[in-house]
Design the sequence.
């Protein structure tokens, strides 16, 4: 009986080990996440501007110079995609009048009991992510990126939340002003303030356990490319990758945290950035394959939806064409009816005129006859 119990315990223990997923990421070392969105930063600006602090972070982690950004007309829609991992038509947030229709990264953090803070340098474009006064800070539209950095740095060290999102807007304003010198100055100011943030983190021994991600949700160049830079615990150093997209940000952050991404997120974790033990690589490959299969299904589903929309459009165009033809036929029939009525009216006019002339002739004859008759009796 003892041997039977021992065998059962060994079997259960072995089965339990088989169910344990390997620890792909050093989530226990991760103490905070800083996500910085530099509106106006694109691939061309990154490779042509000597932003030394930004390049230093890239050298310490992963860099994708040509990360594919979100193509949309509004910065609100692009930022919502960055924070949800969903396309604009899925999350439904295009302007301040809209509402987020899917779960965001901030909602996920709140569900897991993580502290977070969003510093909005746009003056309120991200009001939809306002979960409270301490969690959402809307700076005036006239404020500079320096003030946004100052609000983030003043939280170090005691009030630093687990997740900080920083939205910077000066580079975009310079682009809209069509001033190259102002644009260059805005990028260099950003790099200088980034260096100040790094120094503050290092001075308080908070740099090594901080995951820092720098990108731009929307590109301002025809290439649609923006840099994606990731550096932190559990992240490989000196890695250059490609084929990533901005939508991968949420999935990557969730992988570093060791939690599942929101169901609406279509991004794939950037596994190239992650440090993986040799014995865990097979799990990563399996997970990556599963993510790719999921993405393939989503793409095919989207393709089928587009096909359905195309068929509906063709059907509508055919119906419009038939209706147009019916209108033309009706117009032709109307012309025939109008011509027939005009012809009938003309004949009626001629007939009426003939009757009038006959009556007039009769009156004249009768008048002449009566006149002659009365003349004879005189």
Sequence:
């Amino acid at each position: 009986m003892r041997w039977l119990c021992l065998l059962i315990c060994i079997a259960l223990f072995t089965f339990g080990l088989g169910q344990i997923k390997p620890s792909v990421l050093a989530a226990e070392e991760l103490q905070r996440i800083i996500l910085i969105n530099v509106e106006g930063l694109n691939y061309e600006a990154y490779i042509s501007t000597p932003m030394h602090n930004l390049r230093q972070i890239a050298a310490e982690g992963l860099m994708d110079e040509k990360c594919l950004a979100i193509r949309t007309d509004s910065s609100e829609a692009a930022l919502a995609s960055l924070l949800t991992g969903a396309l604009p038509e899925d999350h439904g947030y295009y302007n301040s009048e809209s509402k987020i229709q899917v779960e965001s990264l901030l909602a996920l953090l709140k569900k897991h009991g993580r502290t977070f803070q969003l510093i909005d340098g746009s003056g309120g474009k991200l009001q939809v992510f306002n979960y409270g006064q301490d969690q959402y800070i809307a700076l005036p539209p006239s404020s500079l990126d320096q003030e946004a950095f100052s609000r983030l740095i003043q939280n170090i060290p005691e009030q630093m939340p687990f997740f900080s999102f920083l939205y910077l807007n000066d580079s975009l304003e310079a682009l809209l002003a069509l001033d190259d010198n102002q644009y260059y100055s805005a990028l260099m100011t950003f790099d200088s303030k980034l260096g100040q943030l790094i120094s503050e983190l290092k001075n308080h021994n908070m740099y090594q356990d901080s995951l820092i991600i720098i990108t731009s949700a929307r590109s301002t160049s025809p290439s649609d490319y923006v840099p994606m830079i990731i550096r932190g615990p559990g992240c490989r150093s000196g890695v250059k990758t490609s084929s990533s997209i901005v939508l991968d940000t949420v999935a990557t952050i969730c992988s570093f945290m060791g939690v599942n991404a929101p169901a609406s997120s279509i991004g794939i974790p950037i596994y190239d950035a992650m440090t993986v033990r040799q014995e865990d690589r097979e799990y990563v490959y399996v997970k990556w394959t599963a993510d790719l299969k999921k993405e393939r299904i989503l793409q095919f589903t989207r393709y089928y939806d587009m096909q359905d929309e195309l068929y509906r459009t063709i059907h509508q165009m055919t119906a419009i064409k038939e209706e147009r033809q019916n209108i033309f036929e009706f117009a032709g029939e109307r012309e025939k009816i109008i011509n027939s009525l005009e012809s009938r009216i003309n004949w009626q006019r001629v007939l009426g005129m003939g009757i009038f002339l006959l009556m007039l002739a009769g009156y004249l004859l009768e008048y002449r006859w009566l006149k002659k008759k009365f003349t004879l009796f005189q």
User: Anything to note?
Assistant: The CA atoms of residues 295 and 301 lie 10 Å apart. The chain has a mean pLDDT of 84. The first strand starts at residue 32 and ends at 38. Residues 25-275 form a domain with the Alkaline Phosphatase, subunit A fold (CATH 3.40.720.10).
